[in-house]
Amino acid sequence: MAPQCYTWIFHLFKQIIGHYYDPNVIKDTLSGRRAQVRDRPLILRYFGRDYLRLSIIDGESEKKCNVRGLQALKSAKFVCCCNELVLLKSSSSSPLSACFVLNPLSEGKITTVHPPNHRPVDPCGFFFHPLAKEYRILAVRKESRTSYEYYLYLFGDKSWRRTSNPCFHCLPTYNCTSASEVNSFPAILNGGLHWYIGTNRIMVFDMINEEFCVKPLPFERCYEGRDHLMRDLLVKDDSLCFCHVGCQEGVMDIWILEDYTNWCWIKKYIVNLDWDIDKYPIKDDLPYDTTLDMLSVISIHKDELVIFWRFRGMFSYHLVFNSVEKIHLKKSEMDDYSYSRYFDYKLHDFVAYNVTKSN
């Protein structure tokens, strides 16, 4: 009688918990995890205290960048990357706001790009032009309190010029910092560079006709009157993606632009951020609410969301199975540095490094 009782209890328990212990589901989950690791974009780690260090993370292996002359650029700060190339900028007055371009996977030379007319500009985008078949840098200079002038550096001609419509009333800024902090991480797709600039707006630069415009976020009314901790624009599988984390809820809403022409968005995923503290501890026993605003999304590719959570680690979140797994990284100087200010995020962080063919 006892074995029958235990068997009945086992089947009842299995029925209650549903498919989570279904061998087929477990098999699918494991195979899905393996596919995620294979398909995951490379990750670039940069650490800019004292001098810049770069390394490439592939799975759980990490390769340090050994480009000749990198360590000599003591004042260089990471700006952004495009395909296999990384864009840096001098933070000192000598050379005057110069930019530097390099490939961290090679040991080739560093290309120096001096500012136009020897006047400083702020890079706000780095992209590959699909028609001209060349890399270009988009940069901005403030002309007045309400007007900004935009420039393009053409790697083919090795020269700067103004964009076709150079003056625009908006500046791409980080939505959680001062207006002077230029956002150099646009989401690039459909021949356009996209920045979230706050107050229900996305700024767009069309790289073909070189025109700017501002488009609304139609779902912003969902968060009206609510403080936020993170609002990031990314690209997921050739669609624009918007990630939102509020102050009151321990969740991340992920919106997808399903129809670019008609500007139609849907909320496709809700990521639960209330993870097991014992399994995924927070460094220095900081309160959960304090660290919630230290999230950054590195990539969102297929069904995998890669998150860097300061004081906690890097994680892979499966958007279909709603499961989380820690990505183990090599020990770094970056781990022991205190992130007390947003500015530090610009010095030490991770970004997706999408190495693709440009032709």
Write down the secondary-structure element order.
Answer: HHEEEEEEEEEEEEEEEEEEEHEEEEHE
Question: What structural category characterises the helix and strand content?
Answer: mainly beta
* Cα end-to-end separation: 71 Å
User: How does the overall form come out from the CA principal axes?
Assistant: globular
Largest sheet: 4 strands, antiparallel
The helicity comes to: 10-25%
Percent in strands: 35-45%
Low-pLDDT runs: 1-21
Record the SSE blueprint.
Layout: H1 2-17, H2 23-39, E1 42-47, E2 53-58, E3 61-64, E4 76-82, E5 85-90, E6 99-102, E7 111-113, E8 122-129, E9 134-144, E10 147-154, E11 159-168, E12 187-189, E13 192-198, E14 201-206, E15 211-216, E16 228-236, E17 239-246, E18 251-259, E19 264-272, H3 288-291, E20 295-301, E21 304-309, E22 313-318, E23 323-327, H4 342-347, E24 348-353
Antiparallel strand pairs: 1-2, 1-24, 2-3, 4-5, 5-6, 6-7, 8-9, 9-10, 10-11, 12-13, 13-14, 14-15, 16-17, 17-18, 18-19, 20-21, 21-22, 22-23
